[in-house]
Amino acid sequence: MKYADLHVHTYYSDSTFSPEEVVACAKDRGLSAVAICDHDSVDGIEPSRSIGNKLEVEIVPGIELTVEKADAEIHILGYCMDYDLGWFRKRIKELRDARIVRIHEMVGKLRAEGIGISADDVFKVSGRGSVGRLHVAKAILNTGKVKTIRDIFGKYIGFNKPCYVPSVKLTPYEAINMLLRAGGVPVLAHPRCMGKDEYIPELVGHGLRGIEVYHTDHNPSAVRKYEQIARENNLLVTGGSDCHGLGKGRVLLGEVRVPYTIVEKLKEESEKIKSEYRQ
Ligand code: AMP
Ligand code: ZN
Ligand code: FE
Ligand code: FE
Asked: Does residue 139 sit in helix, strand or coil?
């Protein structure tokens, strides 16, 4: 049986792993395919492909976009999009630039709470990657003032905590529509983290095609619930580990895996979308 992990980050966003490390680890853990899904970036896809060709690990092109609602943060995964399209690259570059502005704001709020880190401290951690809260968390850990990532998110930078700053101003429609126009399959990431199942119908209305039922943060009852929601809404069922290298302590890669047939379904769906939306 062939397996795929359909949600993996690289150091082009907030994983500590290079593309080489991701692919070598995937090989080691017996995976046939991995989807590279960095936040607002597709820069990890080509480097992963060149090493994947050598090690016979298929790389599925992916991305993870963030959508803001007043009372929730929603992550949308995109699969098999034409990631070289000029307008697509330009739009995600704008999103990455907005992330930099956001870090300056967040650092100001942290200072008011007695956590003295600078934006440059954060950028040193993020390096080439699209900068995000996990990098902020690492910079705070380096000060020794707060001991765990869990506490940092829980007290300061988690959704709607005092130093939280919304990441980007994508609406659900915009995120899903830009993926569709690029021929990508929009999939709701880790719905349990969003915690607002009532938003799912709206997302489906905008063209959502799948839901990440299997995820390292989903317990068996969450899996059952989202399997049911997938059936009711005729959504593809996907799954992935959301591995961030050592970014979250343990290397999660391959801990959630789905049969390779899901990759085939994503490719078929992408072809359908391309014939509907190609401009
Ligand atoms: P950002 O894209 O900057 O909003 O950051 C999102 C990243 O922060 C995700 O990849 C998550 O891994 C991480 N994250 C969000 N909430 C938490 C949390 N409560 N604990 C640990 N990591 C989190
Ligand atoms: Zn992340
Ligand atoms: Fe996510
Ligand atoms: Fe992720």
From this structure: helix
Residue 111 has pLDDT above 70, yes or no: yes
Question: What is d(CA 75, CA 213) in angstroms, rounded to the nearest whole number?
Answer: 13
Instruction: Give the three-class secondary structure for 248.
Output: coil
Ligand 1 binding site (Cβ under 6 Å of any ligand atom): 14, 39, 66, 132-134, 149, 153, 158, 167, 244
93-157 CATH choice from 3.30.300, 1.10.10, 1.10.20, 1.10.150: 1.10.150
Q: What is the number of helices (H) and of strands (E) in the chain? A: 11, 8
Q: Residue 88 is encoded by which pair of tokens?
A: 């697509």
Q: Which CATH number is 3-92+167-277 given?
A: 3.20.20.140
Q: Pick the atom of ligand 1 nearest to 132's CA.
A: 3
Over residues 15-24, the pLDDT tens digits come to: 999 999 999 9
- At which residue do the structure tokens 């709020």 appear? 109
Structural domain spans, the chain = 3-92+167-277, 93-157
